[in-house]
Amino acid sequence: MALKGKVALVTGAAQGLGRGFADILLKNGAKVALLDVNEQGGKALKAEFDELYGAERTLFVTCNVESEEQLKVAFQRTVNTLGRVDVVCNNAGIINERDWEKTVAVNLCGVVRGTYLALEHMKKTSGGHGGVIVNVASMAGLGPMVSAPIYTATKHGVVGFSRAIAGASEASGYGVRINVLCPGFTQTDILTSLDSVERSGQFSHLRKATKTLLQQHGVLEVSDVAKSFLELATDDSKNGAVLLVQTSGASYVTFPIANPPSAP
């Protein structure tokens, strides 16, 4: 998919990976709706992008992905203002083991909501133009992070949900690809959350194990992850793909069982 003239929507866009994804989309000719719960940060980013790319290329909408209503409004404003939706990146995420229900609501339920709304707007069976959804998981979606079991569970959920819905979309003739991005440790605010006693909850005493992992794997730059995001968004051959991004490079994940056995 060539991005010039396309319209993208990115959640958690005000900083970190979301900002990086929005920037690379704009650099490749797309218009971008920037969604974030951080109104001040989102408006500041919108102003910055206006200087670089022109005011008509972006839209900022204050949106908490925990809210079905706010997400619906954000999608509709995107269509009303920018004309359509072709690319959706469900990126918003947190680490908070103490408030584990909020972590599930943002990291997993927010991705499910965003994916279903994206399909409503894009699927060809309902008059849409087709498109692509990239759901952002984590290296923790492929293996356990012992100091953050809830975060681990949500990211495993994103991987499993995305792979299943990718197959469902293809089988249903929706014309919408769904892929998963699994970055390793990346230089964002979430990285600092890993060392927070408050957000580590009952497993704060295991933070040293995470530090050991960090030392082993190193830290990615946002720009490195954004390049892999661009690949998943633009490569029309990829559907249900899971791309792991590490400091050593990016590689597609193969799973032992592609499809579960049929029920008897």
Q: Would you list the SSEs in sequence order as H and E?
A: EHEHEHEHEHEHHHHEE
**What is the number of beta strands?**
8
Shape verdict: globular
Mean pLDDT: 93
Largest sheet composition:
8 strands, mixed
Helix and strand content put the structural class at alpha/beta
Portion of residues in beta strands equals: 15-25%
Biggest sheet, spatial arrangement of strands: 3-2-1-4-5-6-7-8
Uncertain regions spanning at least 5 consecutive residues:
none
Radius of gyration: 18 Å
Q: State the separation between the terminal residues, measured CA to CA.
A: 40 Å
Percentage of residues in helical conformation: 40-55%
Helix count from the secondary structure assignment: 9
Please specify the SSE layout and strand pairing:
Blueprint (H helix, E strand, L loop, with lengths): L6 E5 L4 H12 L3 E6 L2 H15 L4 E5 L5 H15 L4 E4 L9 H23 L8 E6 L12 H23 L4 E8 L5 H5 L3 H4 L6 H11 L4 H13 L7 E5 L2 E4 L12
Parallel strand pairs: 1-2, 1-4, 2-3, 4-5, 5-6, 6-7
Antiparallel strand pairs: 7-8
Quickly list its features.
264 residues; alpha/beta; eight-stranded mixed beta sheet; 9 helices
What do you see in this structure?
By secondary structure, the protein is α/β, with parallel strands linked by helices. The chain is 46% helix and 16% strand. It has helices spanning 16-27, 39-53, 68-82, 100-122, 149-171, 189-193, 197-200, 207-217, 222-234; strands at 7-11, 31-36, 58-62, 87-90, 131-136, 176-183, 242-246, 249-252. It has an 8-stranded mixed sheet with strand order 3-2-1-4-5-6-7-8, with helices on both faces. The protein is globular. The N and C termini lie far apart (40 Å). The mean pLDDT is 93.
